[in-house]
Amino acid sequence: MTECRRWAAPLVWLALLLAACLGMAQLEGVFRWIEPDSRQVIYARADFLTLLGRHLSVVSVAAVLAILVGVGAAIAVTRERGRDFLPLVSQLASMGQTFPPVAVLALAVPVLGFGTLPIIVALLLYGLLPIVRNTLAGILGIDPAVREAARGMGMNGGQILRQVELPLAAPVILAGIRTSVTINIATAAIGATVGASNLGDPIISGIVNGNTAYVVQGALLIGLLAISVDSLFSRLQPASMR
Amino acid sequence: MIDLIHVTKRFGASTAVDDISLNVARGELCVLVGTSGCGKSTTLRMINRLIEHSEGEIHIDGQQIRAFREETLRRRMGYAIQSTGLFPHWTVARNIGLVPRLLKWPAERIQARVEELMGLLGLSMEEFAGKYPRQLSGGQAQRVGVARALAADPEILLMDEPFGALDPLTRETLQEELRALQSRLHKTIVFVTHDMDEALRLADHLVVMHQGRIVQQGSPLTLLREPADGFVESLLGGEDRGLKEAALLPVSQRMLPLGSRLLACERIGQRASLREALSMMLWRHAERLTVVDDNDQPVGELSLRRLVGARSDD
To answer: Which of A15, A58, B120, B213 has its CA 20 to 30 A from that of B47?
Structure first.
């Protein structure tokens, strides 16, 4: 496959996403048909591109933190010294995902106040599990003979981690990050309930005001964003993992 | 070169290796043989400190192994294992160059060394250098494993059942190659196996282990002729011992100079083993063989009576 064709799918989705952000007003006829009784059918309190930017930055910050914490914790508990904490960490990560993000928001707001911070915390907790679980699976799944040989050849701990374990586990780790980010793009919408303005705004506002057209616009953009990012990730993974 | 002095290894309450003493001379191929769980692998892995010994001392070249940093010690020793442990994400050439790279050799020297080793192990550079381990057959992968162990030209080579997973034909080829390699390189090799035929074929010094202890050690012929107890005897094949011994002795040792009699029509090389000679006699229904040198010139003759070691010829 040529380089161009490899990137065709994500580029098409990105183009659709941008077109939808900029040209939502052109679809007024369709939305008027969905919501004939409302005075306004195109969400206009903020411009979609700004909302998209905020949405992306919240998800990115949460993702970077989740990667640092998740991959870091998984590496730590697969070292000789951290082995004892392995069950604890995998359980904590599972709990993070069973805890509904809405509940995290409710608990975080009194402590952190309204705005972006509580939603980042909620997304971080929610996104940890796939990353921790996949990093653990990737590292623990390496043929023990490979690690034995690496040690026997005289590689030290850092060399084994950087030159052997991480490269071999990378495809599985990347798959975990992909799942985590894709889920969180959708989950981030609830941030709109605590004053973090993003693509969830039209949805929440649509629900509150009984305007289905707004809900559809927010959902459409979030869906397109999730698909674009997911298809970008699928390009990063080696062919064998797709 | 390698000295184990009253070495013991305990895992919790159980004793894996029990007070063994062993000396491997420079340039010697020492084979540790025994049933599974007898402590032979543990012994090997204590030498490069993949396992730390509990009691006793291990010396390399007169120095305690604990005087070295673990990594430094291991980089001085080649290490080859049954499942090869080649890095699946690296090419053959990069795998072989691992230890030289750890030792920070300059790139050209690593490149030259990798080429040299691939030649030595019969792996063509064009065909194999860029391949990945999953593209290799078992025998090729094990050759790469041995090349990697030899890469930094270590004086000591530790081999843990390196040929254990190969089919019998490939295994024999690699055993031959190891012998040939050893006769050129004169490394000090500690080789672990549970296959007694392999042990007898390769060993200069044979060490039989049982339940964490050394039961007997010595040259293969000594062990065959004077097994210390029933265990060694049964491990050496009991009734088969005669054939195993014959496999270790060359024809040239028992042949008689050419006499006045007509030459027998069946010929055998003087380097062949007595076992091969016996097999040929059985197969061809011949009581006498003509022994020939490398150029196929007759140099002597071997009769069945001589072969089995009867005192005088007819």
So the answer is: B120
Q: How many domains does chain A have?
A: 1
> Are the beta carbons of A148 and B99 separated by less than 8 Å?
no
Pick from A179-188, B35-44, B235-244: least confident: B235-244
Confidence check: pLDDT of A107 > 90: no
CB < 8 Å & 24+ apart, contacts of B104-113: B105/B152, B113/B151, B113/B153
Contact flag A152-B73 (C-beta cutoff 8 Å):
no
Domain that holds residue A223: 25-241
Residue A114, token pair as written in the block: 């309204």
Task: Write phi, then psi, for B292 (nearest 5 degrees).
Answer: -120, 155
Return the CATH number at A123: 1.10.3720.10
Asked if residue A3 is part of any domain, the answer here is no
In a domain, A225, yes or no: yes
Q: How far apart are CA B186 and CA B59, in angstroms?
A: 20
pLDDT at residue A151 in the model? 93
Indicate yes or no: CB of A153 within 8 angstroms of CB of B72: no
Complex prediction ipTM = 0.81
| Any domain includes A4 | no
Backbone angles phi, psi at B92, to 5 degrees: -55, -50
Interface A-B, measured as beta-carbon pairs within 8 A, has a size of 58
Strands B63-64 and B14-24, bridge-based pairing: unpaired
Note the pTM of the prediction, 2 decimals: 0.81
Query: Number of helices (H) and strands (E), helices first, in chain A?
Result: 12, 0
